[in-house]
Amino acid sequence: NIDDVEKAIRRRWMDIERNWRNQLTTMDFPLLENEKIRIGLDENKQPCVVVEMPTNASHSDSIQVSRGLFICIKSLRMKNQEKSRFIVSVEKGSELVYSAFLSDYLMTVDLKDPRGSFEETLDEWKKKWAGLRKPIGPREEEGLVGEIATLLELSKHIDDSAKLVDSWKGPLDGIHDFESNPLHLEIKTTIRDPPVVRVSKLEQLAPRESGALHLIVVHSEIVEGANTLPMYIDRMLNNEKLISEKEAIIERLERIGYSPKHRLHYTRGFQISKFTCCPIDENTPIFPPELVAEVPSTVTDIRYSLHIKGLDRYTMTSESWEETGKIMMERGLTTGEV
Length: 338
Prior knowledge:
Strand order of the largest sheet: 1-2-3-6-5-4
Mean pLDDT: 88
Order of helices and strands: HEEEEEEHHHHEEEEHHEEEH
Strand content: 15-25%
Low-confidence stretches: 332-338
Helix content: 25-40%
Largest sheet: 6 strands, antiparallel
Number of helices: 8
Number of strands: 13
Distance between the termini: 52 Å
């Protein structure tokens, strides 16, 4: 049963972590009754599985075959036997994503060709990860990165993680991405220079009748080797302050349409350079929401691009993030206006 194997592998990783000493450390895996398969943590403390190779196997350096997934072939001495071993390593924090895949691989591996078996299993799982539901689109991907980056910044200055995560309303169809009684935040990610943000709903930037609204612009570049969306998600799920709220965070990711099954599809790296805050009030030069009443009924959707260089704005610093966090936590949170 693949679920039993997956649970056993993760338990083995936890057992080995207690005895890891800055070098590849492995244990046998009796569940599969095959002494050529071992579970371990590599020299970088990354979870791995080790499979004995045929004697004529060629060695290879570590290569990344997917985000957070690495393979190599090297000679290792185990139980006083020097033999070639095929090693599959998983980036720390990605165990939940790949443990089922590794379980399937170990249950079906052809010991005459562990590398070939790995490629076949990986191809099959890529199709599974694609699933019936498509990955979220590029704009949604950019937006989610910006919201997560904002959540991580706020977590540095807000101790009540439950209230902080509860304020993240964007994935739950909130009007704004973060909503608290005194302050709402609308997050927009831009990869354009000069910065331009896309407003998909007029109410997103409509001044609030009670309380403040800040537009937070996340300035990002697409850079090879920078953190991808799954990497940002791993950082969020493993953040010390946020880990207690993992269930609520996963619920939001599911509502957005993100699935770990699609991890291999998100290959763009996002390098965030800064955050800009634009306070929104009745004097802010935006599309006037009140004009909606004059729009013909045949028009059902109005979207526009906003150049932020024409807005009052300032670059977010540690001090301004701290002040934002204080304002957000001044009173209890709500899902809407008060």
